[in-house]
């Protein structure tokens, strides 16, 4: 079969020749009903019968891989899609550098690899669960469609990891695949594995911040797993990254449109000072200091997803050739890192200090630095939006030590500028830095649904362009389709 094109004649669309891989096909078909039950229970609430204008992958060729059509979400063709195999591919880093990339799981690394696949897999359904209520308060049909697009693709990313578990990890892989459907975001007894995926996504601003910051962690993690010497994982992640780009677009443009609307409303009524919060809020738009607080929250939660700054797990993943660095093959060094160092921010004698650490154990920090750089570029694009309107305000990423629950700074409090605070001072100042209950209530008060084609809630500007070049009043979701 042509690996570029996806076979849609089977129940599970795929480009991995499932029809000739009976055992795996059977295992996946066995898992499918449980997945659909999960989707119906935990997927977008209230719109399962609506027709949604969604893209579906028809090929893994980066040029022209997707086709758009109206689909009812439970009928979305979730499938298994891997980027084409490169027969010449090698392990590009760690102690096996130069060996042929592995097509099967190396026995000695089985447990490590399974853990990486399971953690990655666990985040995908978690985000769908976190976002399941949002359809009901969508600011437009355009935004509602984007939410559902993100949701079905996160569902597909779960399939991607489940395929790896079922094909390469035998009975324990099947058990892990079942457990991915058993855990629930925020559940006290069976929570999702990583912190940020157990937080609520209570409103659309959180959704946009999440898709900007947390999906961007996804991008960095997938980029490093795409470097893996275990070739099927690499190929899976490479294709997932194609889909991921849209998710970050939704976040970046979502926040941009909120900023645009707020600044225009301020200008139109002659409000010059962004800190006149009540006056700005009275216009029915989200004030800029609250935007900053939301950003502080989502950025700091996402930093936790990189694990500890100094991590032997990360060193072992790298040494084994399982998880590389961002842009590994473009970096000019020996790709073994046994004698290298990397600067890491740590708490030393009660002070935040930059220290040299062995590069291997500092890999989480390095990836996080790459992430911060990527985030900062996006924040600059947001600042340009504000600047163009003539409003005097700048958004800024908070310091690494701010509001952390994992790693070096988990046990201290710091301001967004990185000044350490006592527990008492933190308790007093916290609501200046992070969204307070009152901020949350205000944002919630704006979340009234707008379901008329071409219309947008007052707190957000329309997008510059439609999806798939559709006109402004396109009916992206036919809500009453049934
Ligand atoms: N929460 O050595 P350490 C995405 C645990 S997002 C809870 O510091 P390590 C997406 C850790 O498991 C990308 N626990 O960290 C985005 C370990 O436990 P054990 C998802 C945490 O292992 C939006 C212990 O603490 N993919 O795709 O070097 C929508 C010490 O660990 C956390 C991946 O993350 C936490 N935040 O790094 C949809 C890639 N952090 O072993 C999707 C795969 C650490 O002592 N995962 N712990 O029981 C990994 O590469 C690594 O496991 C981590 C952690 C980066 C997560």
Key traits:
single chain, 482 residues, 12 helices, 7 strands, binds benzoyl coenzyme A
Describe this structure in words.
The chain is mostly helical. The chain has helices at 22-42, 110-130, 141-168, 170-182, 204-225, 231-269, 277-281, 288-303, 312-319, 363-389, 423-433, 437-446; strands at residues 51-57, 66-72, 341-348, 351-358, 413-414, 420-421, 477-478. The chain has a 3-stranded antiparallel sheet. A two-stranded antiparallel ribbon has the order 3-4. Helix 2 runs antiparallel to helix 3, helix 2 (110-130) runs parallel beside helix 4 and helix 6 (231-269) packs parallel to helix 10 (363-389). The chain is globular. The structure holds benzoyl coenzyme A. Benzoyl coenzyme A binds at residues 116, 119-120, 123-124, 127, 154, 194-195, 214-215, 217-218, 221, 304-308, 311, 313-314, 323, 364, 406.
Distance linking N and C termini: 37 Å
Mean pLDDT: 96
Low confidence ranges: none
The distinct bound ligands, ions and cofactors come out as: benzoyl coenzyme A
- Discrete helix count: 12
- Morphology: globular
**Order of strands across the widest beta sheet?**
2-1-7
Give the beta-strand count.
Answer: 7
Q: For the report, how would you describe the main beta sheet?
A: 3 strands, antiparallel
Q: Estimate the helix proportion, in percent.
A: 40-55%
Secondary-structure content class: mainly alpha
User: N-to-C SSE series?
Assistant: HEEHHHHHHHHEEHEEHHE
- Kindly provide the radius of gyration, computed on alpha-carbon positions and rounded to a whole number of angstroms: 23 Å
Beta-strand level of the residues, as a percent range?
5-15%
